[in-house]
């Protein structure tokens, strides 16, 4: 299974990773007592925007929190050519965010739920500290 997932286009990994991370963020916000949909959306953006995701991955790299294999997946995502231009982020932040999402997607598709949850909990805590 893992080998098949490794063969996927990193933008495909980022596509599913984006959705998985957003679901975790939404669940976290609801569990923290947020109920107003407008407020939920505004708070979620703080977590899922490219600059926030880029900051998270920079922290993980600086703190050496990722395995070599995880860093390789991140780099594949970061280096993938998406063909789109980011609207609300620098090209560098957008690419790092794509790498972040590719890593989340890889962990999800390989059913590595324990590691996925560890990293997502850490990401949410990091963004909340601000």
Describe what this molecule looks like in 3D:
With 130 residues, this protein is mainly α. It has one domain: Ribonuclease III domain (Ribonuclease iii, N-terminal Endonuclease Domain, Chain A). It is 77% helix and 0% strand. Helix 2 packs across helix 3 and helix 4 crosses helix 6. The longest helix has 22 residues. The protein starts with a helix and ends with a helix.
CATH topology: Ribonuclease iii, N-terminal Endonuclease Domain, Chain A
Number of strands: 0
Which CATH class is shown?
Mainly Alpha
Strand content: under 5%
Into how many domains do the coordinates divide?
1
Largest sheet: none
- The CATH level-2 architecture is identified as Orthogonal Bundle
Given helix and strand content, the structural type is: mainly alpha
Tell me the radius of gyration. 14 Å
Mean pLDDT: 94
Distance between the termini: 37 Å
Sum up the structure in keywords.
mainly alpha; about 130 residues; globular; Ribonuclease iii, N-terminal Endonuclease Domain, Chain A; 7 helices
């Amino acid at each position: 299974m893992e080998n098949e997932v490794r063969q996927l286009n990193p933008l495909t990994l980022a596509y599913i990773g984006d959705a998985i991370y957003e679901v975790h963020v939404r669940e976290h916000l609801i569990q923290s007592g947020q109920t107003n949909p407008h407020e939920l959306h505004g708070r979620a953006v703080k977590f899922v925007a490219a600059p926030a995701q880029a900051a998270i991955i920079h922290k993980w790299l600086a703190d050496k929190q990722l395995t070599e294999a995880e860093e390789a997946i991140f780099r594949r995502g970061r280096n993938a050519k998406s063909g789109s231009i980011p609207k609300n982020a620098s090209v560098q932040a957008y690419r790092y965010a794509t790498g972040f999402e590719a890593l989340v997607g890889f962990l999800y598709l390989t059913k590595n739920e324990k590691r996925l949850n560890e990293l997502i909990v850490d990401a949410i805590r990091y963004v909340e500290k601000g």
